[in-house]
Each structure stands twice: as C-alpha cells, then as structure tokens.
UniProtKB/TrEMBL annotation:
Protein name (database record): Carbohydrate ABC transporter permease
Homology family: Belongs to the binding-protein-dependent transport system permease family.
Domain ABC transmembrane type-1: 11-200
PANTHER family, per the entry: ABC TRANSPORTER PERMEASE PROTEIN MG189-RELATED-RELATED, LACTOSE TRANSPORT SYSTEM PERMEASE PROTEIN LACG
UniProt main location, coarse: membrane
Organism, scientific name: Nonomuraea longispora
Keywords: Cell membrane, Membrane, Transmembrane, Transmembrane helix, Transport
GO CC, one annotated term: plasma membrane
Record-linked Pfam families: BPD_transp_1
InterPro entries in alphabetical order: MetI-like, MetI-like_sf
Protein origin, superkingdom: Bacteria
Length: 214
C-alpha cells in the first residue's frame, strides 16, 4: 500500500503553497505597513488598531468566515483557496510597521527632498533597512504554511491537493501501522524547514545584533 501513496505529490503541493504564499505574504504586509508607518492620513491609527485587534482572535474563529468567502469566490477545493487567506496577516503588518517606524525620519525626509517618490523610498530605503525583519517573516511564514493542516483540511476535498502535513495524516489513515512509511514521510517533511532556517539564520542574527547595539 505504501507505494500507492502519492507522497511526492504532497511534497510538491507544499512547495507550491509556500512558494506562492510566503512572497505574497511578505509583499502585502510590507505594502500595508509602509503607509501606516510613514504617511499621514485621517483614520490611520484607527485602521492600525483595527488590524492589531484581529491578532487577539483565535484562528479557529476565522475558519467559517474564511470558508464562506472562499466558497463565494468559487475557490473551494483549489490551490488559490488554500493560498489566499495566508497572504494577509496582522502579525506581518504589525512587525513591519514597527520596523519601518524605527527608521530615522531624517533619512526618509532626505530621500523625499532629493525627489524620490514613495515607491522608490519603499524599495531602496525601507526594505533594505527591514531585511532582518523580512527574514524573520519569511521563516515564520514558511513554517506556518509548510505545517498548515486545519485550513487545507477544511477547504480541500481532493486529496491530490493536500499539503505535506495533511498528506502525512492521510498516509497514517491509509497505512495504519506502517511505521516506516510514517517515519520516512515525517523526516522528509522536516528537512526543508531545517534547510530554510539554516539559510535565513544569518539575517536573523544580524537583526538581533543590530537590536542589541541600538
């Protein structure tokens, strides 16, 4: 029975989910955080606190509203239906907003005086300054998407679209006491997380050293 289990498919699905969700998650969080940190407009603080308040809601509370929205958009049982809710995160917006707000205002004002438009300031000033934070968000986002279980279980019916965490549970249901298959699947699913952390830890440590110096 073990040979009939499409574990490589689950692995590929998780790579697709991570490869699409994490970059979009970082970009959307940064684009939302920039105006909240550096622009002045009416209701800015109200919007920020409204976003912040969603962090106190248990993720389970949002399952039904998310599923209803995804179903209305016709994205139930699709890759897009799994990816879409993970693109927007209050935690990512909050973390980057605090990082952007910590960049000296003189640097931003000098860039504006030199004629830089907001997109250029965002790309060439703010993102390089926030590199350690972006690395942290990348690691957290990767682990969250790679280990996602509840949301794919709710939104997906086709087992061929399962991510690796859900695939291993499905594998356990099929193989029963086939401990070797379960152990092999679990070890293989952990390896990418370790590799990503090893690649990104330099940026995280740089950020921690910078925070200590500051």
């Amino acid at each position: 029975t073990g040979t009939a289990i499409p574990f490589p498919t689950y692995l590929l699905n998780s790579v697709i989910y991570v490869g699409v969700t994490v970059p979009l998650y970082i970009v959307v969080s940064a684009l939302c955080a920039y105006p909240l940190a550096l622009m002045n407009f009416r209701g800015k603080n109200l919007i920020f606190f409204a976003i912040l308040s969603t962090m106190f809601l248990p993720s389970e509370v949002m399952l039904i509203p998310r599923f209803l929205v995804v179903s209305e958009l016709g994205m139930a049982d699709t890759f897009a239906g799994v990816i879409l809710p993970g693109v927007l995160s209050a935690f990512g917006i909050f973390l980057l907003r605090q990082t952007f707000a910590g960049v000296p205002r003189e640097v931003v004002d000098a860039a504006r005086t030199d004629g830089c438009h907001e997109l250029r300031i965002f790309w060439h000033v703010m993102l390089p300054a926030a590199r350690p934070t972006l690395a942290i968000l990348g690691i957290f986002g990767f682990i969250s998407v790679w280990n996602s279980f509840i949301w794919p279980l709710v939104v997906l019916k086709d087992s061929a679209k399962y991510p690796v965490a859900l695939g291993i549970a499905y594998l356990a249901g099929i193989t029963g006491t086939d401990v070797r298959s379960l152990a092999a699947g679990t070890i293989i699913s952990i390896i990418p997380v370790v590799i990503v952390f090893m690649i990104m830890q330099r940026h995280v440590l740089e950020g921690m050293r910078g925070a200590v110096k500051g």
